[in-house]
Amino acid sequence: MARLNTLLACFVSLACVPAAALFSASSVHANWTDSVFPIKSHNFGTVAVASKTEFKFPIRNTTGRDMHIRQVRASCGCTTPILSSNYIPAGGEGYLLARFNTPTFRGKKGATLTVIIDQPFYSEVQLKVEGYIRSDMVFHPGSVEFGTINQGETKTGGTKIYYAGRSDWKVMDIRANQPWLIPKFQQIERGPGKATYELTIAVREDAPAGLFQDEVIVQTNDRGMPRVPLRVSGNVVTSLNISPKSIAFGTVKPDQELVQRLVITGREPFSIASIECPGWNVEFDNNGAEKKIHVISVKLTPNGAQGAQRSALTIHTAGEKPVTAKAILTADVISDQVVVAR
Questions:
Q1: Where is the signal peptide (predicted)?
Q2: Alpha carbon distances (Å) from 306 to 50, 326, 329
């Protein structure tokens, strides 16, 4: 009898182990997509006909294994899903672009994008988009795309608004999210139940370097849908590049001389006026020559700074239109310790 009880206890124990394991695996399976798809819904708001309206759902492969997305289905033709790649390596990132088809659809629209993953685990993830495409207002073109912009220079682009509906409809204001985006508007035509406006947007010379995707908001006197976004994008490139952009010295002593080789490249020939770095003495050979590429060795010495340092090393060019380039210098400056014998 004792032996039978022991066998029964073992059987119950073995039977419970798979169930617990399955429960744990099911919990993991249910939750792993939350970190892979941190955003699962987006509302485009109210947009105009033919406006370029897109949103990128980020995909972050946190599974520790390579991931394969077999396909993406859209529940409505109002939205076109576009994958950056079907394969995302372990630790890598991608995105699913949801493009709202404003030229061909009108009114309140929404779609469910079903992402089917077959590696490393099978799962179906649903992403949702929605928005309202107003039929009385058209941007032409549907976005302002600046392309490449030289930093330090201004560039202007624009579009037109065509409206058909109320006779008293007006554009009241246009606002940008960034201080270096300068929007303006003017009415160029008005007739019975229609109006045409011209919108111009300038990228100011102090725009930061890099890609940008932003929007300006057109404010109208329409009480029901007063705010309409317009997509604005471009790439601001600096006229001066420095390599490396990050200089890490690690642990250094006060008054320790360190030498860093820098390659500075410009679109046009230039000469170097000065190199500065707060908390550091900077020395370099400067012959005043003008050329597109400068390869120099810079001697850097801590100047009274102690502890963890993060300073901007700034290069200034000479001439009537000087420009600058910056690199980030990091170091841990330790104090000299004197041991006193007793």
A1: 1-30
A2: 58, 22, 14
